[in-house]
Write a structure and sequence with these properties.
single chain; 73% helix; Tetracycline Repressor, domain 2; 10 helices
Length: 202
C-alpha cells in the first residue's frame, strides 16, 4: 500500500511551489500599487491564506520585496552570462544582452527591479538593492568596453552610454502591458535595433 504521507522531496517541491505563488502574487501588487501601498494582508487574501503563512515562507514585507528583486536580478545576470558565451564582437554580445535585458524588464520580477527604489527600504535593504543593481550596470559596461576595445563600438564614455541604454530600456517596465499588439520579444528587438544603430564606428 502506498504511503499517504509526502516524501521529503515532495514536501520540498510543495514548499517551493507555495513560495513561488506568494512571490508572484506579491510582485504583481508591488508593481501595480508600489511597495508602501501594498499590504501583505491583501497578498494573503488573494491566495486564500493567512498573513502568518507569508511570514512562515518568506518573512516580512521587505524580505518579500527583496526576494522578488533577487529573482529579477537572477534573470538579468543569467542574460549577461549567456551573452558572454556568445561568439562575435562586443557589439554583438551587447545587442544580445540588451534584448534579453529589455524582455526581463517586461516580466513581473524584472519590472519589480526597475520600479523599486531604495527610499522605501531600511538602510540595510537599500544597500542590498544598490549593490545588486550595480552588478547589472557593470555587466552592461563590460560589453560596451569590450566593443570599444575590439572596434565594433565607437569610442565614447562607457558610463554615459550604459546609462542611456538602460534608461531607454527601463521604460517598458512602466508602460508595457502583457497581451498587447506586440510581444515583449518584438518590442525588445525593435528598441535595441533603434538604440544600437548608431554605435558602430563610422
Amino acid at each position: 500500500m502506498a504511503s499517504p504521507f509526502s516524501t521529503p522531496e515532495q514536501r520540498a517541491e510543495e514548499r517551493s511551489a507555495k513560495r513561488q505563488a506568494v512571490l508572484r502574487a506579491a510582485v504583481r501588487m508591488f508593481n501595480e500599487r508600489g511597495f508602501n501601498a501594498t499590504l501583505l494582508d491583501d497578498v494573503a487574501a488573494s491566495l486564500g491564506i493567512s498573513k502568518p503563512t507569508i511570514y512562515h515562507y518568506l518573512g516580512n514585507k521587505e524580505q518579500v520585496l527583496l526576494e522578488c528583486v533577487a529573482l529579477g536580478l537572477e534573470q538579468f545576470l543569467a542574460a549577461a552570462d549567456q551573452a558572454r558565451r556568445m561568439s562575435g564582437s562586443g557589439l554583438d554580445r551587447l545587442r544580445h544582452f540588451l534584448r534579453a535585458y529589455a524582455q526581463v524588464n517586461m516580466d513581473d520580477f524584472g519590472r519589480c527591479v526597475i520600479r523599486t527604489g531604495p527610499e522605501a527600504l531600511s538602510p540595510e535593504g537599500a544597500q542590498s538593492l544598490r549593490e545588486r543593481k550595480r552588478r547589472i550596470d557593470a555587466a552592461m559596461r563590460s560589453f560596451i568596453e569590450e566593443g570599444m576595445a575590439d572596434g565594433s563600438i565607437a569610442r565614447s564614455d562607457p558610463k554615459i552610454l550604459a546609462f542611456t541604454l538602460a534608461g531607454a530600456l527601463n521604460w517598458p517596465a512602466r508602460w508595457h502591458v502583457a497581451g498587447g499588439e506586440l510581444s515583449a520579444q518584438a518590442i525588445a528587438h525593435q528598441m535595441v535595433d533603434i538604440l544600437t544603430l548608431g554605435l558602430a564606428p563610422r
